Amino acid sequence: MNELAQMHEIINQVDSPHQLTDAARRLREAASEKDFTPQRVLEIFEQWAAALDDREVRDIPGVTFLRLWLRRGTLEPILIRELGPEWLAGEWRQDGRARLRAFPLGVVGHWPAGNIEIQAVLSLTCALLGGNTCMVRVPSGLVNPTRRMMEALATIDKSEFLASRIFLASFEHSRIDLHEAIARSVDGAMIWGGEEAVSQVRALPFPHWARVVVFGPRLSVAAMDAAAWADKNESASWCRRIARDVWQFEQQACSSPQALFVERDGAADPSGFVENLKLAFEEENQAHPRGEIEPALTSAICRTRASWLLEDLGNRALFPQSADWTILLGTGTEIPQPTQGKTLSVLVVDDLLEAIAKFDGSVQTLGLGVKDASKEEAIAEAAGRHGVDRVVRLGQMHVFSSPWDGMDLVRPMMRMIRHVKSYD
């Protein structure tokens, strides 16, 4: 069987609304015919994580994190926190004289962003964990990596317990009639992407009862206090963590750090720290070299380098002759316009709280390297008040967990049923 035929078996090329409404009908039938148990899904996911270590898929950006996400040790605590231990056991939870139990919404539609290779798969796993079936619109750029990851699932899901609950559709972004057909057929939706894409999907004709969860455009930053970055014994380790966060997902993910705020230290020059950061970037680039780069991104990186150096005589820039990576060193409390392409702005500030006070709700994740525990508590409190949804240690900015963007990942696509007995 050739590669194109395999792709069509797993990802369906759709050209009519009828194909999608018919697929939704089959998904509802599959859900009613096969008993769902959370434990069975967790077991299959664990095996899927192992299958994703195969050389055919391990090179897909983000697969390492997807493997960690699919493990029982990651998911079981999330399900217990969001839905309670009783749900994992298939039981009702007592709530006074009533009892509660979570049930799936039904068919969940997924619109993943087109710039993160694992996102189509990551999104559908959130709905599958709640017992839902999934209809996924796979962007053209994600067709190949999604197919390869789903083929790994097929090798262990022999009975198609999960495969029968998934319909992957590929069609041109301009086919509004097909987007509308999915929207009319679902009971819930998970939408990811930039402002324009999110707005277009939210405007689709969903049923009035459908629940819609949006993971829209965000950006992330990092911050270090002087005690952390100026510690010569720990500097190299922190720099490796920062480089790892920058390299993942080509700095295109919402959780990718675009700027690093460092607290001023009267006794230490941040230039030494930035030299260590340069070494870490060089090591990371050697370990994970970029295969190719779009001409438009190369041009944007060159413009950013030039404008940064011309903007202020005190600014510095460290970069190789290529566009592989860039470190911009300067001062200020404002987050620069992101360039991406492994371009990190390192900004010296007198007080980290001054920078955080200017966050406007667009910051998703704040990666920290802070030695002073009381200072970190104050930073986390301020970050929460200024719209930040995740405060994590540097090196772990992309670790996918719940809540994400301030929301649970499984429960929004569930219905919590309350039962009060008719007889005591």
Could you walk me through the main structural features you see in this protein, from its secondary elements to its overall organization?
- The structure is a single chain.
- The chain has helices at residues 3-10, 17-33, 38-51, 63-70, 72-83, 85-88, 119-128, 143-156, 176-185, 195-202, 226-229, 235-247, 270-287, 295-311, 352-356, 373-385; strands at residues 11-13, 93-95, 98-104, 107-111, 133-137, 166-170, 188-192, 211-215, 219-224, 257-263, 316-318, 326-331, 343-349, 363-369, 390-393, 414-420.
- It has 424 residues and is α/β, with parallel strands linked by helices.
- The longest helix is centred in the middle third of the chain and has 18 residues, at 270-287.
- It starts with a helix and ends with a strand.
What's the arrangement of secondary structure elements?
Layout: H1 3-10, E1 11-13, H2 17-33, H3 38-51, H4 63-70, H5 72-83, H6 85-88, E2 93-95, E3 98-104, E4 107-111, H7 119-128, E5 133-137, H8 143-156, E6 166-170, H9 176-185, E7 188-192, H10 195-202, E8 211-215, E9 219-224, H11 226-229, H12 235-247, E10 257-263, H13 270-287, H14 295-311, E11 316-318, E12 326-331, E13 343-349, H15 352-356, E14 363-369, H16 373-385, E15 390-393, E16 414-420
Parallel strand pairs: 1-6, 4-5, 4-7, 5-6, 7-8, 9-10, 9-14, 10-13, 12-13, 14-15
Antiparallel strand pairs: 2-3, 3-16, 11-12
Helix pairs in contact: 2-9, 3-4, 3-8, 12-13
